[in-house]
Amino acid sequence: MNHRAPVFIITGGQGQCKTTFLHLVLGLIVGLNVRVRGVIAPGHVRDGRRSGFTLVDLATGEHEELCSIDPDPRCEAHGRFYFRPEGLVFGRRALAPPDPRETDLVVIDEVGRFELQGAVWAEQLDRLTAHPHPPMVWTVRRRLLDTVVERWNITNPVVVDVGTASAMATADAVMDAVWEWREAQTFSPITAAPVPGDRIAAPVLFADTVTGAPRSTPVILRRCYGPEG
């Protein structure tokens, strides 16, 4: 393993359930003593149209409204959404650079055009990718994939297309990366088996996903970005 653990990028078109796929993957691994940090952002729909997002801190289970389409003079306007200052502070705290001795996986849902414009989580992404980091899972809209990979100089992405990929196979690949990361942290000994008292309890958000995962043929699309093209 090189000095940077892989970045898994869950991608698909608009409305193609990237967050749902991520939710399912996390549901398969949260009971495996994996120390997860980061955010997941379930969306809200009003009159058949996306109306806002809630942010969930995966380390604590706490949540905060991130943005909505309702105008508010206190909020930062990006596109048609108004981002609440409390939601931005909440997310930036959740995405602070992790202690590698205490973190196995970092999740960011999602990286999009606002970050490419230098807003929302852009500064946090810059910090996370500037130094050695644990394995990460991002969600990225398919049409922005190449731009995001180039912008943050991701040299070893594992691209997972929700149209063809298996959540079970993706979770297996993420766990392989987590174990490689743990083994590389020689200053953080790994016990042979998790101690029940130290196990991370699966949050309510993922309670129903572990038993409902499809066991379809594993398909993970791997794309290499580098000098060789």
Q: Could you describe the 3D structure shown?
A:
The protein is an alpha/beta fold. It contains 6 helices and 10 strands, in the order E-H-E-E-E-E-E-E-H-E-H-H-E-H-E-H. It has helices at residues 18-29, 85-94, 113-116, 122-130, 145-151, 167-184, and strands spanning 7-12, 36-40, 43-46, 49-57, 63-68, 76-78, 81-83, 105-111, 136-141, 157-161. Strands 1, 2, 3, 4, 5, 6, 7, 8, 9 and 10 form a 10-stranded mixed β-sheet that branches. It is globular, with a radius of gyration of 17 Å. The relative contact order is 0.23.
Topology:
Elements: E1 7-12, H1 18-29, E2 36-40, E3 43-46, E4 49-57, E5 63-68, E6 76-78, E7 81-83, H2 85-94, E8 105-111, H3 113-116, H4 122-130, E9 136-141, H5 145-151, E10 157-161, H6 167-184
Parallel strand pairs: 1-9, 1-10, 2-8, 8-9
Antiparallel strand pairs: 2-4, 3-4, 4-5, 5-7, 6-7
Keywords: Kinase, Transferase
Protein name: Nucleotide kinase
InterPro entries: Nuc-triphosphatase_THEP1, P-loop_NTPase
Structural class: alpha/beta
- Global shape: globular
Number of β-strand runs = 10
Low-confidence stretches: 189-204, 206-229
Instruction: Round the mean pLDDT to the nearest integer and report it.
Output: 83
N to C succession of SSEs: EHEEEEEEHEHHEHEH
- Give the C-alpha Rg: 17 Å
Largest sheet entry: 10 strands, mixed
Give the helix proportion (percent range).
25-40%
Give descriptors for this structure.
kinase, P-loop_NTPase, transferase, kinase activity, ten-stranded mixed beta sheet, disordered C terminus, 229 residues, Nucleotide kinase, alpha/beta, single chain
